[in-house]
Amino acid sequence: MIMNWYSAPWQNFYCVTQKIAVSVLCLSVAMTQVHAQETQAAAADAATTNGDAGGGARINLSGKLRMLSQRIVASACYLQAGVSSDDSGAMLVAAQEEFALITDALQNGNDDLGVFGEETRRKTLIGIELLRDLWVPVSAGADEIAAGNGSQETVQQIATDSAPLLEMAQKLVPEISQQYSNPGELLLRDTLVIDIAGRQRMLAQRVSKNVCLFSVGLGSDAVLAELQSAADMFDASLRALRNGMPDAGVQGPPTPEIAAGLDGVITDWGVAEPLIATVLSGEQINADDLATMFSTANRLTGGMNTAVGLYAEASKLGG
């Protein structure tokens, strides 16, 4: 059902971030001139049709759903394991509330979030409804953990149920981006960089989730493979954002503030890397190291969230 719903030409847009971790620069193939023109034309039509519907906020918030789908699992894992219980418990509840708030805003509008008016495009509404359906079992499991009524099996089920939720969130982002991007304000190259930076928020939580799952006895070959993939992509994307990768259409930081922010993320990533390496070697990390992973991943997500805002602002200024 999800694959039938998702047929936008922007599916090729993600080829860069999916391939960048293995140094396959496929932007010139995936983003052909025809696709670029189609995207710009669709965005121009959307800008005319939608007016001031809070397009920028819709794009950013839809991207945040990817991260929240992973943060909920990670927080549930840490809380059930008794790691940083006060913080992980509060984060689990906050992530649930924010996920529900954002999905409602994307469908019905929310002036406080900068999303003006109800969504009217049928395809987008169908995507949001599919997302809501997939959210129900994840939310129910998270409620059990937050209330202290969960178990390791509950965490495992949340992790399983979150996979299609993330998949749907991943596919909703380009649909909303295509619908609401204004080519007069945001060039395609800027959209690419903002999406890569936004995806880093999710990858940090995906890394954290899998480190926790493995270290509390819920590990598997699939968990290690997902951890390796997420860590590789985060690292390669961070290097591309900080140093530039022109062949893939990724420019270096457009402002000193963004450069400094990315340097901070690099520092935090250096804290996480040895913990990730330990888990990838097949060893579980202890409670103290899990607490470090939890806090570090949240700083990484926060740093990249700030970077997304700075990139968006720089694009408006022609940076």
TrEMBL record:
InterPro entries membership: NarX-like_N
Membrane topology: Multi-pass membrane protein
Highest taxon of the lineage: Bacteria
Primary location group: membrane
Pfam families the UniProt entry points to: PilJ (PF13675)
UniProt GO cellular component terms: membrane
Annotated localization: Membrane
Keyword entries, A-Z: Membrane, Signal, Transmembrane, Transmembrane helix
All residue ranges annotated as the NarX-like N-terminal domain in the record: 54-158, 189-287
Signal peptide: 1-36
The protein's name: PilJ/NarX-like methyl-accepting chemotaxis transducer
